[in-house]
Design a protein that fits this description.
131 residues, Alpha-Beta Plaits, 2 helices, 24% helix, elongated
Length: 131
């Protein structure tokens, strides 16, 4: 009919849904390095593991010390290691390592170099890639 406006179908208003997906990975892996600025004796693999456990105990008590952490590799020469922890304990481990300040009454510091839910991601560092 003349004079009547044609009804136009309006498209539905765009709706946005925010989805946050937590990693479904069971474990997280950390590449860490222990820095001992004054040199001296270097910890063995067993002493390194004990240092990690004592860092957890110091910050989070006995519950933190019971967190399952595995030292997958350890190089005494470079004081670097790859640690495996259950994903729910990643923040506890990272904070405990960061706040640790001494080893055998000597100053020290843990540096977290890389972290990933995939062990393969720690096998190489793209920043050190030589073409």
């Amino acid at each position: 009919r003349p004079g009547e406006r044609m009804a136009r179908a309006e498209p539905p208003a765009a709706s946005f849904e925010r989805r946050v997906l937590r990693s479904a990975a069971e474990h997280h892996y950390l590449r860490v390095r222990l820095e001992l600025p004054d040199g001296g004796a270097r910890p063995s693999a067993a002493q390194f593991k004990q240092l990690v456990v004592s860092a957890l105990r110091e910050l989070h008590g006995e519950v933190g010390a019971a967190l399952p952490v595995d030292v997958l590799t350890y190089e005494e020469k470079t004081l670097s290691a790859i640690l495996r922890v259950i994903s729910s304990g990643l923040v506890k481990l990272w904070s405990a390592l960061t706040l640790l300040g001494c080893y055998q009454n000597r100053r020290c510091a843990f540096r977290v170099l890389q972290t990933s839910p995939f062990l393969l991601a720690l096998s190489g560092n793209s920043r050190e890639l030589v073409l």
